[in-house]
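A favour, since you know our structure tokens better than I do. Go ahead and set the record down below.
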Amino acid sequence: MYSQSLSGLKTNVDNLGIDYYIATTPGNYVSFSGSIALQNNGFYMEVYKIGKLVYFVMRVTIANSNDGAWKVKIDKYPMKQTTCHAFSAFKGTGSYVPCYSDSNGYIVNQGGTGKYTIVMSGEYVTT
């Protein structure tokens, strides 16, 4: 009886379109654009997808950035371009970093140049 209940719960969750994953390396999960180098072990991301809504939190430690504004895209869930998105990012000890989405589905942040850690989160609608 117990295993049937768990099986039924998994089926119900699957039917809701809920997905969740953690990535500790960018790998096949994200694409970066810009002149940046990540520090070793400098990436962590959690992504939750419920239906068409995607929620994420990402920590990126930059070993060196030559771009004032670099970009990142969550490849598994492309961003729908005709909807509103909400992002926020904080650098170092908590200074706010402006970020927005571009027409290619990237999240652009203006973290600046040099070496730093940025924590970014947000939500968007996937295609």
Observations:
- The longest strand covers residues 36-50.
- The chain has one domain: 17-124.
